[in-house]
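## Example pair
The file below holds two records. Each record gives the amino-acid sequence first, followed by its structure token line.
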Amino acid sequence: MTELDRLAAEKYVLLTTFRKDGRAVSTPVWAVRDGDTLAVWTAADTGKVKRIRRDGAVTVAPCDVRGRPHGAAVPGHAVLCGPQESHRIRGLIKRKYRLIGRLSLLGSRLRRGEAGTIGIRITVQE
């Protein structure tokens, strides 16, 4: 099993981005496999989006809902998606997380609008 397969099978992954001064900031997120990358979905105005826009270096590790890792972190490179890719990622999230995924996406769309969330694609290093 590859690192990508292992991470994509997890319910939550710990996405770690880095501030300008090098300090790590970790957040548990839902993740799905998107071809040869791992895809996550988040609000467009979050700190992780700003940090990825500045520098795409990230690490990803399997974790629980509270962000406690239960596996090794893997380095990767993250890129922010455009509107159509983000829409496709939301569809993948709905498929994997079923009812709770649909409800979360609906609530987010009602609060923030369609442009209020963004997809992130992560290429993990094997």
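Second record, same layout:
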Amino acid sequence: MHKAIFELEPLTCPSCINNIEDTLNATKGIYSANVSFSSKMVETQFDETKIKAKEIEGVIRDLGYPVLSTK
């Protein structure tokens, strides 16, 4: 299991958190996704044989949330 943290631009509403978490948690290969509203971070745990961090970043971007950095 791998871990990646994505830094986002400031989120504007709590429904943004639900949108990101629900989509990522439903994505094949992702075990968990948690968004911190105050720190603008999305922490994920995933199976790298099924999905790569760059692909997760793409899912977040496709939802309309720019990713500033990945750790």
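Notes on the second record: Strands lie at 2-8, 30-36, 41-46, 67-70. The chain has a mean pLDDT of 96.
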